[in-house]
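Issue: copy button drops trailing tokens. Both records pasted manually instead:
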Amino acid sequence: MRSFIYDQYGYLLEKDVNEFSFEGYDFRLVAHEKSEDEVRELAFALNELKKTLPFSVKSFIVESRNHTLVTENEFGNVSLIAAKKDVYNFNAIIYIIEHGSQYIKKTNYTISNLIDLWEEKLSLIEEKYLGETKIDDYAFQIVNVESIYAIGLASNAIQYLADIKKDYGDSIPNLTLVHKRIESMRSIDIFNPFNFIQDTACRDLSFLYKINEIKEKELFDFFEKLNFSKTDLSLFIARLLFPTYTLDLLEDQYNIKKNISKEFFELNKNGKKRMQKNALLINHMIKKYALRPIEWLNTVL
């Protein structure tokens, strides 16, 4: 990786990594399946978004020595992104949500689509990823317990989606610009153009709550500010239940052979407290907004 980054971009690294810092900027090599033209469109959209923001953002896709935004290595197409070392709060996310609809292509997105996506991810976990942890691995028991728990949560979240479809219909309105994942509030994550996706505001709000960047009162304020319908509120609950982080770890263990033991020990250590926190919020939402109840949540309180 060191030689690839130097040959393609001219940065000389001390270690063999795909993330590094240089002169106040964070850099990350991102794998993707986009063409040069598609990435140039992405770069244009990011620049247009930055012009509308009421705060400064210095984030961009780095050109290679050959003046391309896409290069190719042994894993396929990759691009190097850069962002000034800044950290934002949730208001930056809310601003993107409020103004992001102009940067998406209007498509028909339904609850049925979301159910299919989650069921496909769950099937891959059950059929492929679970077998990656070896029986003699010292972390096997922890990984196994947390994996089974995550599968149960995912199944319940999918069932709740089916209930939402029955209660309010299949349509998911009010799509805007949000994030595939929010793991930190660093600029390299929030303004990574490859991290943007078309979805509803509840996606980002659920991530913010999961990583403790937003509190319950602030959530309710934003539900009101963003005019959340009962469908939106229920989708937020489904996303809060769905164990994205755990399933992503299992996927990484299978696809890139990542050692996930440390992360799973942390999940096991804090799992009960995290689930109680989510259950309290969900029960409060169900009572406040007259939503479909989830009886099994009471067993974790």
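Record 2 (pasted manually too):
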Amino acid sequence: MSLKLDLKFFYSWIACSLSMFILSYVWHAQVLNDFLKIPYPIDVFLIVSTVVYLGIGLVLTTLTYFAKKIKDSFKYGILIGGFMGISIYAITFVFGISFSAAIDLKYIAVDAGWQMLEQATGGLVCGWVYRFLFLREKRQKMLA
């Protein structure tokens, strides 16, 4: 199966990445105040985070496109996003990339759950945008 890179793909990718970045920012900057613990300039962190979330969004969007059935694209997005969230959390946990130095089972459960929710939301947005644009394109072809 080949991946057709069209506007639906790019819009889905950007919407997915943006939604995850916003959720991450709200969680870490507003709810937990984790940004106070960053030992380097915040603009560097935000630039790197933007690149990372664009990468995560690209992978999530690509996987959602490969697994897609148009009517279930948002379900695939949620499933793939949730799996990616757990995978990303596991990688960051193993490498010790965290805002917290303490290892507490409650903290791990909440943080892993949040990461899963964040990426699942990105997948939902990806699938929803794709489906919306697909149906819009289909309607335009019928009218033409």
